[in-house]
Write a structure and sequence with these properties.
By secondary structure, the chain is mainly beta. The chain has helices at residues 2-14, 171-176, 185-189, and strands spanning 19-26, 46-48, 59-60, 66-68, 76-85, 92-103, 111-115, 127-131, 136-141, 144-153, 158-160, 166-169, 192-195, 201-204, 210-216.
Length: 218
């Protein structure tokens, strides 16, 4: 009886709360109020509670969020096993193990680009801007402007979504100019990319065909 009472006393004294574990992913860049203008000032982690990485599904954590024992290095997706107290909001986590550290190469192609003519292909001027932090590719050309999300960006592999999640067209412009066929088709077809020694950014389809070539526009 005394032993049980003593154990209860120790639990009350040292907070013997049941621990639980889960798998989370950590975004490779911490974001500030440039993406959350109505949020309090600070730099925030983005995470997701999933076994498999979903490049488009992230939750902004509060400024007080922390993972004890986790040494964060920018530019990597982290898959972590973490521990937390079951009866407390999971704002304070403890690292159990790093399951995966996946390098992100989007920083290599971040910036503004303009396409250049290719032999034996019709030329339609297109501008793109790749944003590292928001993980988006903006396209401008003719009467159209669009934004698409980006998934994995490896050393050569690149994932663009099949359709724009935002596409705007100027109706007045369209009334004055015919629609340019295939102008943005590279977005749906691109699976690989390369940076050439001359500084060009090239996109390829799954068969290795060159779709479009860009040069820096800034």
């Amino acid at each position: 009886m005394r032993r049980n009472a003593y154990l209860l006393f120790l639990c009350l004294l040292f907070s013997c709360t049941e621990k639980e574990t889960k798998i989370i992913w950590v975004y490779p860049y911490r974001l500030g109020t440039e993406f959350y203008p109505n949020a309090e000032a600070g730099i925030f982690f983005l995470t997701q509670d999933k076994e498999e990485l979903d490049y488009s599904s992230w939750k902004r954590r509060t400024e007080s969020f922390e993972i004890k024992g986790f040494e964060y290095e920018e530019g990597y997706f982290y898959k972590l096993k973490v521990e937390y107290e079951a009866d407390q909001p999971p704002q304070k986590l403890k690292l159990k193990s790093v399951l995966e550290k996946r390098k992100d190469y989007i920083g290599n192609i971040e910036g503004a680009w303009k396409n250049i003519p290719l032999p034996d292909q019709p030329y339609f001027p297109i501008f793109i801007r790749i944003q590292k932090l928001s993980r988006t590719l903006e396209t401008y050309g003719g009467c159209f402007r669009g934004i698409t999300g980006m998934g994995e960006v490896g050393e050569r592999k690149i994932q663009l979504v099949d359709t724009y999640y935002r596409l705007e067209a100027d109706k007045i412009c369209l009334a004055q100019s015919p629609i340019q066929e295939g102008g943005f088709s590279f977005v749906q077809s691109t699976t690989h990319y390369q940076l050439t020694p001359d500084g060009f950014l090239e996109f390829f389809d799954e068969k290795g065909n060159l779709l479009i070539r860009f040069q820096p526009s800034e």
